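Subject: for your reference before the review

Hello V.,

The reviewers asked for a structural picture of the protein, and I figured it would be easier to keep everything in one thread rather than splitting it across files. Below is the amino acid sequence we used in the manuscript, unchanged from the supplementary table.
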Amino acid sequence: MITVLALADMYAAAQVAGAPWTLLLDEFGGVMHIAATRALAMLQRGRSHHGQVIVVTQSAADPEALTGQPGLLASLTDNFTGFVIHRQNAPETRDWLAKLMGTTAIWQSTDQTTGHGAAHSGKGSRRRVRQFRVGADTFAELGRGEAIIYSTLGGHPRRTRVLRAQFPHLEPERIGTGQRDACEIEVHPASTLDQLVPDPPAPKDQPTGRRNRSKPKTESAQLQFESESV
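And here is what came back from the structure prediction:
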């Protein structure tokens, strides 16, 4: 429920912020399992609201495996413009990634041999074929820190080494110390939490008549607390 509410708040804030933003969703397969509708809304509407969404998952098969929805991976892929793929061992995942990287046209030549293959006759053939830009086995050969980077906006996939990010040793800015953004609202505990606290139960040694008179008030407070919680 926290994930669903958080994504809903982020989506609502992104519509009124009017500024560039970036959202990183780690363990994306688990997020899709819990809040698929909200996560898809962020992916599909992020660009129109000046934002970008980065998703991280252990395997490309996680979204379909955790949600049980065949074809979900292909639908999600239409919303992605860039990929950073580290080592993948599952054969099905490697084959899917090879298809995702696309193919390139090359000339394939064949040579005629004589003497049971011992010599070339000088004759042969040549034809145009398609070859995977990145072979499926390449994804299983990547070392620690290596990755295949690919963008659907153009260009060929490249094998590279991802450098470890170095962050400055500074304390982050605390919420509330700077200028309030347009997507923030002010909420004070004194004006909200007190209304959700039910009245304490009457002591056991209290007279029966007094306890009966306070009972409707306690039930009303409990009902209000349950209603506010929902």
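For the response letter, the relevant points are probably these. Residues 187-230 form one domain. The mean pLDDT is 76.

Happy to draft the paragraph if you're swamped.

O.
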